[in-house]
Amino acid sequence: xxxxxxxxxxxxxxxxxxxxxxxxxxEVIRATLGRxxxxxxxxxxxxxxxxxAALRDAAVIDARIKRGEDVGPLGGVPLHVKDxxxxxxxxxxxxxxxxxxxxxxxxxxxxxxxxxxxxxxxGKTTTPEFGHMVWTDAPLFGRTRNAxxxxxxxxxxxxxxxxxxxxxxxxxxxxxxxGGSTRIPAACNGVVGFKxxxxxxxxxxxPESFGNMSYIxxxxxxxxxxxxxxxxxxxxxxxxxxxxxMSAAGCVDAARGQGxxxxxxxxxxxxxxxxxxxxxVLRMTRYAASAFxxxxxxxxxxxDDMEPTEPMWLVLSTALWNARxxxxxxxxxxxxxxxxxxxxxxxxxxxAEMLARAYVKRTELYRKIQGWFEHAxxxxxxxxxxxxxxxxEALFEPIEIEGRKVDTVRKAWFPYTHPFNLSGxxxxxxxxxxxxxxxxVAIQLVGRRGADALLCKAAALFEQTRPWAxxxxxxxxx
Length: 478
What we know:
- With 478 residues, the protein is α/β, with parallel strands linked by helices.
- It has a single domain (3-465), classed as Amidase signature (AS) domain (Amidase signature (AS) enzymes, Alpha-Beta Complex).
- The chain contains 17 helices and 15 strands.
- It has helices at 3-7, 11-19, 25-43, 51-66, 109-116, 159-166, 183-189, 223-233, 251-254, 279-294, 310-325, 329-332, 338-347, 352-372, 409-412, 418-423, 452-465; strands spanning 46-49, 78-82, 120-125, 137-138, 142-143, 172-177, 192-195, 215-220, 265-268, 298-301, 378-382, 398-401, 404-408, 427-434, 440-447.
- An 11-stranded mixed sheet has the order 1-3-2-6-8-7-14-15-11-9-10, with helices on both faces. A two-stranded antiparallel sheet has the order 4-5.
- α3 runs antiparallel to α4 (51-66) and α6 runs parallel beside α7 (183-189).
- The radius of gyration is 21 Å and the shape is globular.
- The model has no long low-confidence stretch (mean pLDDT 97).
């Protein structure tokens, strides 16, 4: 078996083969590291690669298997972790010069659980500084490129994780998502990005747990691999107030995609507080949504009753950024991302009343979205209004859709994602085909709070109907 075949093999296939000793964990890790070595200069999707430690851990997995021990459902499978999430003994920079040499003493809960399930950490993937924007670019390491087109953005802020999965640099990725940071780069790079129900995977690194809208998430090439990660990472932890009583049990069984969707109510929603979308993207996503009708679901279309949520999201985000970093500006401003500094300045004068109003609006949004599920079990929509924007796109300038300048990136490109960070509903983005510009197009499925297993089933059945994992980017050095 070639290294390329191993590199693009799903975790759900790799782990059983390693357990049966058809492949060794060391062989799999070596193949993955070799591919990273070739493609990292082109893609720039890793900040840190821990090759020696990964090979040692893989050798331990192989020895345990030889002794007849159970090494877990992810035994020997390569894992990469976004550089916003702590990894014991492995540098974690948050994409910032402030933490350039930071080495955590312990793993984040989610990472520790993946290791317990047998996954082998191979490195830390790129992120903009503190995950503050939708491009993966930071003063510490530079810019990450799209796996399909080096002239386009990887998306963000989990751009490194998405590119690594798409390029065959490890099937399991840990990302984070505070406004779409998992689903946006997954859509840009043609992989699966799942933002689970709030609290399902404990977020022990959230600086403010009670009002948290950030998630530690799986990133994979297949729905089954996402489900395997969900079940490994999920469950209560005292560090996360939202995690109590939460469970991902049933996600793996659901991801087998057995049966059909008869009796399920699926709503197609082409707009979500926006008025402009690329015509080809709209046609492709509408056609993709029809697959759920073919699977037996009762389909209907929802009218748009949303206002843009970006203003509320920005008040909450900039308030938190200022609380965390404003005291560091005198020392670090010149080495921080100008985009982060500018957004902090924009939120510096927000009053306590403005912040309270944003929380009131968040509650109103939550209740509105839950009301949608009186008439639907799953809601389907586009993930982005167009394919990946140019690599040099500016965060505060209008983007183009079909050759026409529209609005800024947060308002015009991903209105479909951040509402569900605010509401806590699970949402998954799935590849839905390729645009005439050669780039991936994606749909997003949204479910009831706590209905993550149902979302896995619908996603898996869609994956069977519209298979995509065999499509691979044509990279220059691979």
